[in-house]
What does this fold into?
Amino acid sequence: MTAHDERNSTLRWGVLGATSYIATHLMPAIAATPGCALTAVASRPERAAAAAELGRAFGATAHPDYATLLADPAIEAVYIPLPNTEHVDWTLRALAAGKHVLVEKPMAMDEDGCARVEKAAEAASRTVMEAFMYRFHPQQLRAAEILASGEIGELRLVRASFAFRIESGSGNIRLDPALGGGATWDVGCYAVDVPLLFFGQAPQHVSARLSSRPGLTVDSSAVATMDFGRGRSAVVDYSIDYGPRAAYELQGTRGTLMVRNAWAMDGEDGVITVLTENGVREETVPAANHYQRQVEAFARAVRNGAPAPMSLTESRRTARVGSALVASAAVGGVAVDTSTDTSEAR
Ligand SMILES: NC(=O)c1ccc[n+]([C@@H]2O[C@H](COP(=O)([O-])OP(=O)(O)OC[C@H]3O[C@@H](n4cnc5c(N)ncnc54)[C@H](OP(=O)(O)O)[C@@H]3O)[C@@H](O)[C@H]2O)c1
It folds into this structure.
């Protein structure tokens, strides 16, 4: 195939792992994207029936294991929604097989993993992107536009708060430390990404307090601060103990911008509230499928040979900050003597 043919041909995707989330979000997004085709899906051998069922539903080939899918010459791009501990390994294997890769967040749970992916992507001349779907929703682009317009002044403080509850004993991979579970490397990725996205850099200093619900062996809630220098800070919290929340605020020298639900799904409008000395105004951003927009953006980067919209430099930064949060929690804060506190709620 010539470079011209390749640019104009359909991007054929394979998916590693057959889960209900994939079936209801990413697989329909790939199938619906012009210029993309959902060509194959694979499960681990013991779950072959799951891949076969999804294959039938989407008219895709079901491969008996992940390695067989990677060896399929019909596949050009793979989407990797495996447990966190599997992301780096399967991304490297996919690159070695000559595939482009869209890998779920976190790309890696340390900076070294991202660096290895970056090196392999360069060597293979293939596109790799970490799947931060929320970045592709127009409400995040609109928030960036409002910030750039100067309406809220210069950005000084980012507050990001992300949570959804996972019940103990549910068997969810997020509760299993051996699979990279815990709030920090799951919902925490979003809370960390928001200030990095809007400040466009890593913080110079972080301080986190992680806690675990009784009976869990992973972190399940966190509160953290980040110092970006020159009076710029972030306050983030994230949890798999609390009810749903995916809100953030950008506070500048002249006002504040609030995004009510950064995870606005299909059919749900985005709502941005802007508060300044001139009063309060609300903007509605029409509903959009950020999963499909993510797939479209990735496919464009692959076909045009352009940089992926979420760069590997950004992925390295996110992994570095996530690791720093965990390390800071281990160091601990300063204890306060509560022995003279008369409150019954102590
Ligand atoms: N961006 C988003 O909106 C979003 C939403 C949900 C999840 N995610 C990300 O997607 C990834 C998977 O999350 P999920 O909720 O889809 O998890 P899940 O439902 O448990 O699915 C994970 C899949 O990984 C495969 N797998 C391979 N080794 C495994 C092992 N040792 N134990 C369990 N499963 C294993 C399984 O596929 P087979 O059995 O078919 O081989 C399994 O179905 C995570 O990185 C998560 O952060 C992103």
Summary: The domain at 3-131 is CATH 3.40.50.720 (Rossmann fold).
